[in-house]
């Protein structure tokens, strides 16, 4: 135990060391993976670096103060597991994990044995972050924060936080993801919610929105699969006993080069022409209409079909025999009714309004965060998570994604003054 | 080798500039990048020809093209039942009645399901399909808007609730709200189309009283025939349509059009014409549909042939004056009216057709049907001149038609009637080959029209064609396309008789039984008489006898069928020829049971069979039976029996009694 404790201390020291290093680094370091020389410090990510950057000013005053007994034990515990994980997890050394992943890891704690402790830890984390980011104001003595959290804040350093996040990273594999919502998201939401005074309500609101989106996604995803199943079940294999010369002439709907297909009719047509020449009807006609008045043809086509037209077409369809003669004709009928997938198979059928939307619109959604969201802070982080999730969701249209983001924009906008009061809405 | 190359090179050199410029233009217009490689290739390809390159553009295929190509590879299987019955072999129709029943029940099942879905939309809210399939979702059939507004009126119009729409319109007027012109026009259309009656909803249970059965019933075949009299719902004086129309502050031509079309559709012909004069007085112009309706109403509005034709030409001239472009239906209704113009028709029908062609309007099958009807009156038989139909079919050969006029479906059956009347087999084949082009078979019409067509075709074949060919057609169209009626089977029997293929009769009898015609007494009698008329080879006689026994069992099974003397004796003869003495004896007993008297020839036959098989006992019984029937030839029979059989004394005494007895009576 003593050894562990001492190790932890060493680790913490190392971390603070690295924090110092980070301080030296220019502000825009990203995606840089650095080797660390600590006992449990095999894995560290740029996110940690970023975290550290953000807390640069906070850290110097706090590092090394991790002497509080309560937190000490917890840290020890964490460190213990971290070590275990690191033994087997050397592969994780060089990870380019994005910020949201780091932030979301805390939730994984739930699945482990030391649940209650870690849960509280998570809460602590949430609370702490607020304080970390609002540190400048804290100096000016913002009394709204509880004393307790202040203590906890002080008890933990930025290094400490990165340790925790690392621990959780190591735990990713172990966690079962069977929650209705991804625990990552839950945790992130609660973290974001904790920035607000009415914490539980805000959290539930955020979660509700997320859950709605999730059910929508699920529905759209499932719809795809079910539909396909039904479709395949409906298919019939028709028999094709031989070939036919008949080539349906109206298959080509239009021919851009204007050359239709002309079939030669053979000798019979010649005979027919011979016959045609001696038409028994006199060539006299009524001479009432003049043959060249083409200008009126357009407006009848443009006009909306009246009830009479519908009745007439219905009558026509009744007088003819519409029964399909074989499975293919049945399928043609279904295609016309819209019940069947169109041939040749096109996976993107029904997504015509998405066809013109390029891929980058779907994936690079961060530009939508430029307006109406703070440049930094927990809200920004939360939104980055949301955007990252959306960018991987193939079941929503771009429009739906935008709506999703704008819902959050409105939401945070409404809560702006509360957030400002809490000094977390950095704009 | 070198010489042509040099020649080519020279050619390129000379024409190079021209080609390059040309290709440059061409490719620039297609948006291609001009690369040197392409330049070379292009030059090589076209070094021989100066013609410009025409690069075919992308063809866009319809979504059904693949399926159509596949469907064209599937031929009709003459041994299979129609496709719609293949799901359930138990429900494969064997007779035309079953065909009708099964297809109607299939259809009505669909209609019932649709009705249920539409009336209970709350149970069918799940939409699994991606992309969305509108036709699987319930349609709204119930009214949702309750308040008095134009929106509610529009809803009632789209749902075709005639009385509710009229009510809503009245409420709107009372409330002082003005209804837009368009909505009013639609309302008038609705009322006039359904003649102020609510149409029967699709698939609705038939609880509505008979009066409500309006136009919509026609679409459903189960009620098709019986609804024919409902269809003629007559236009009532001052009905809602007229009332609303009269209340309108300003009337445009579409309102007039709706009313005139409604009046013509529902039989108020003279009213329609007076409304048309009203329209002209208001200096409005009618549309083409109005003219079509009026032209089709002409024969009912005028009595004399001359007057009818004058009115038609007047209407057509007015169309021309009002710059209304006639369409196919205009000319079809002119021709239809001409059918009722007697002697004038033969002059003007060809002229109308020429007018159509001059205007570039392609005639439909209905056009040809009207012309045929003009030239081939069904009453006037005799040596008809088939030139016209011959010409027509030559002209139509290989053309694929689509239905453009409801009357199109009558063409094939009436043309086949003409072929049958003129007994022109060539013409019949020509017509049938037209049916087989493309989708023309769809224009044969409903199952009734189709059976009429095939019935005539089959009769023509039976009448004119060699029996082998007839049988080929028989196996090809029966029963997959056509369930022949008793007359058709009778024709077939006669064809078999003419060509001396009576040995096929037992197989035909099986088909007759399958087709459910075994209860038609005259058909069965015809069959039996054909079988019994001549003697055939023993094998054939054997099969005939089996067939005769089968016929007997059919007779026994049905109380409704009465044995006639001739059929009884035919069966007995057939059995005797096959040496089935016991069964023949049973038949003789049946004579007695049915109070029929066998002929002398039959009894003599029987006796000779008894003799050849050596059963004197049966001979004695025969003579006794003959005596019981009081057949005058009994003594002769007894005498023959006495002379030719080896008899016991007892039998001799019985027979000699019969030999003597009638002589005493006669003395």
From TrEMBL, chain A:
Superkingdom, natural source: Eukaryota
Keywords: Mitochondrion, Ribonucleoprotein, Ribosomal protein, Transit peptide
UniProt region (Disordered), positions on chain: 85-116
InterPro entries named among the record's database cross-references: MRP-S31 (IPR026299)
Membrane spanning stretches: none
Annotated signal peptide: none
Localization in the cell: Mitochondrion
Entry-linked Pfam families: MRP-S31 (PF15433)
Assigned protein family: Belongs to the mitochondrion-specific ribosomal protein mS31 family.
UniProt protein name: Small ribosomal subunit protein mS31
UniProt source species: Ataeniobius toweri
From TrEMBL, chain B:
InterPro entries: PPR_rpt (IPR002885), PTCD3 (IPR037387), Rib_mS39_PPR (IPR055063), TPR-like_helical_dom_sf (IPR011990)
Protein name stated in the entry: Small ribosomal subunit protein mS39
Annotated PPR repeat ranges: 252-286, 327-363
PANTHER family to which the protein is assigned, alphabetical: PENTATRICOPEPTIDE REPEAT DOMAIN-CONTAINING PROTEIN 3 (PTHR16276), SMALL RIBOSOMAL SUBUNIT PROTEIN MS39 (PTHR16276:SF1)
Coiled-coil residues: none
Region (Disordered): 203-228
Alphabetized UniProt keyword annotations: Mitochondrion, Repeat, Ribonucleoprotein, Ribosomal protein, RNA-binding, rRNA-binding, Transit peptide, Translation regulation
Biased composition (Acidic residues): 205-214
Location in or out of the cell: Mitochondrion
Amino acid composition bias (Basic residues), ranges on this chain: 219-228
Family: Belongs to the mitochondrion-specific ribosomal protein mS39 family.
